[in-house]
Amino acid sequence: MKVLFVGPTLSGLVVDGRLAAYPEIVCRGPAAQGDIARAVFEGATVVGLVDGRYEDVAAPWHKEILWALANGVTVLGAGSLGALRAAECTAYGMIGLGEIYERYMRGELYDDADVAQLHGPAEVDHLPLTEALVNVEATLRRMRAEGVIDDALVAAAMAAARAIFFKDLSFETVAERLGLDDAQRRDFTAAARAHRVDQKRTDAMVLVARMAELPDARSVPPPWRMAEPIRWLAFLRDLIAERAAAEA
Using one digit for the tens of pLDDT, what is the confidence trace for 120-169? Predict the structure, then answer.
């Protein structure tokens, strides 16, 4: 079983838990702590992490990613929180993909706020309500490359975007922070929308394509041995008890 954790990054593409072009992949919502471990218990062979939860509940734990890898599960990350976790766990065998992952690896990105965005619940397909910083930056770079804005405005807009809380980030709020007049704000916002780059979605689709190529089977576990402290063992016991209760 191949399991993909995704939400706002691929909003509008998942129907009844599947992507039309990749029906063999089971799509679930953004991962919270324990969701990757649950997928391993359920028999997952390949896990793709794109979106994760991190504010209302605990985010996916590094330990459960390592545990999945230790059990021969192929774990990939890209696009959003998955790119950050992949950069943190690359040394242990997690596969990172895409430009955002590469930027985390180079140290250009370092925080989950760089990929965070406000979005709606599952009932509205995790509809994005704000722009992610990585998409704003990619859009600004494209605007500069196409001669829409100059280097000075790019630098000012980049600084403005980084100063805005992720729940408020949009092309409109960037324009407001720049101190443009009404006409300039409208022109800037319209140009940004016309040249918008969704780097998160692009990277996520690279991950999906890679998942489709991989065999639906677990691999040989890595040579390292994962330490299992008391807290982790208690966490596993709770998941086992939860699974037993659900099957009763």
Answer: 998 999 999 999 999 999 999 999 999 999 999 999 999 999 999 999 99
Let me know if 152 is exposed, middle or buried by CB neighbors in 10 A (0-12, 13-18, 19+): exposed
CA atoms within 13 A on the CB side of 225: 3
Cα–Cα separations (whole angstroms), residue 80 to 63, 133, 200: 19, 11, 6
What mean pLDDT is reported for the chain? Answer: 94
In the chain, what are the domain boundaries?
A: 2-110+200-243, 133-199
- Which alpha helices (DSSP H) does 12-97 contain, by range? 35-41, 62-70, 81-89
Hey, what CATH class is 2-110+200-243 in? alpha beta
Bridge partners (DSSP) listed for residue 119: 128
Ranges assigned E (strand) in the chain: 2-5, 14-15, 18-19, 25-28, 46-49, 74-77, 95-96
DSSP for residue 60:
P
* Distances, alpha carbon 202 to alpha carbons 95, 99, 189, 207, 236, in Å: 16, 9, 22, 9, 34
* Predicted model pTM: 0.94
Strand 18-19 versus strand 95-96 pairing type: unpaired
Distances in Å between the Cα of 219 and the Cα atoms of 44, 45, 69, 215 are 12, 8, 9, 9
What is d(CA 149, CA 159) in angstroms, rounded to the nearest whole number?
15
